[in-house]
Amino acid sequence: MEAASEPALIAHLKDTGYLPVSARPVAAGRRLNGGLLARRHRLSRAQLTLFTRELSRLIGAGVSLDRSLTILASVADGEVERRMITHLLEAIRGGGTFAGALESQGSPFSRLYISMVKAGEEGGALKIVLDRLADYLEKSRELRASIGAALIYPTILLVVSVLSLVLLLTLVVPQFQRMFDEAGAALPVPTQVVISISGWLQSYWWVLLVLIMVLVVAIPRILARPDAKLAWDRMWLSVGGIGPLIQKIEVSRFCRTLSTLLGNGVALLTALSIVREILGNRHLAQSVDSITESLKKGDTLSAPMLSAGVFPKLACHMVRVGEETGRLDAMLMDVADVYDGEVASSLRKMLSLLEPLLILTLGVLIAGIIFSILLALLSVNELAF
Q: What is the pTM of this model?
C-alpha cells in the first residue's frame, strides 16, 4: 500500500478492520509484489495489450476504475494476471493512484506505460490514454512478430545446414577413412583436409561445445557493461545491410513512442528521457542526450536530430515540418509508419537474398566433401589397377 508514513498506514489498516502486525517501507529497487512477475511468471505482450484494451472499454462504458479492475480480475484466465489485477485493486483501495499502483508492480508496466497513465489521470482522459496505449502496444507487437516470423525459415535452414555438415563429417567420412587406410594410398590434399576436420570433430567435439557455452554465458555479461554495449551497438550500425535496418527499426520506435507521449500531454523533455530508455541501440540512445541538452538551450527538436548524424535526413525534415505546422505528434507518427513500411520492405529483400545464399553455401560445402571423397576413391581405384 502507498501511504505518507508508517503511522498513517497503520491507522488506515485499523480503520478498514485489519489488525496490523508490522509495517515497513519497501527497500529501494524492490517491488510490492515480491517478485510476482518474475521472468517465468509475468504477463506476455499479448496479455498486456488485451488487459489495456478491455480496461479502456469498461471505463469508456462508464464503469469506475475500481469496478473495472474487479470485473477483469474475475474473468482473467491466468493466475498471474488475476493476482496482478488484485494487487492493483489493493493499491488503489489503499488510497493510491492508478499510476502509482502500476509502478509498484514493476514488470510488465514500463515507464512509458506508467507516464501515460499518470498524464491521463491528471487530465481526466484515462480512457483515451488507454486506447492509445493499446494501439501502441499492438503496433509494437506486430513489428516484433513480423521480424520474428521473417527469421524463422532462415534460422531453421541454418540449423539444418550445420547439422547436415556435422553428420557428414562425423558419421559418413569416417567410414571412407577406414577404407582409405586399408588401401594405403596417398590421398589427395582436399581429402586430407576433410579427414583432418572430421578427426578433429570426433576427438575434440567437447572443446567446441564448451566454447559455445562460454560464449553464451560470457557475451551477455560483457554486454552488461555500458562501454562494451555502446561499442557493440555502434559496430552493428556500421555493418552494411544490417546497420540501416537496425537504424530504421530504432527510428520507428523513437518516433512512435515520442508521438504517443506528446499526444497524451507528456512534456517533451520528459518524453525524451522515457524514449531514451526504450531504445535498444545504446549508440542511438546516447544521441538523445545531446538532443535533450540542445532543447534545454532553446533549440528545436529537428536541428539536433539532424546534427546527431544517426537519424535519417527524411525523418529530421518531416519532424521540422511537424514543428512548423504545430502537428509534431502527428508527424512523428507518420514518420514511424513510413519506417515501419521500409523495415518490412528491407526484411523481404534481405531474406530473398539470405535464403538462396544459405542454400548455395550448404550445397557448396556438401559438394566439396563429396568431391573430396570421390577424388580419393578414384585415386584408390587407379592404384588398384
A: 0.66
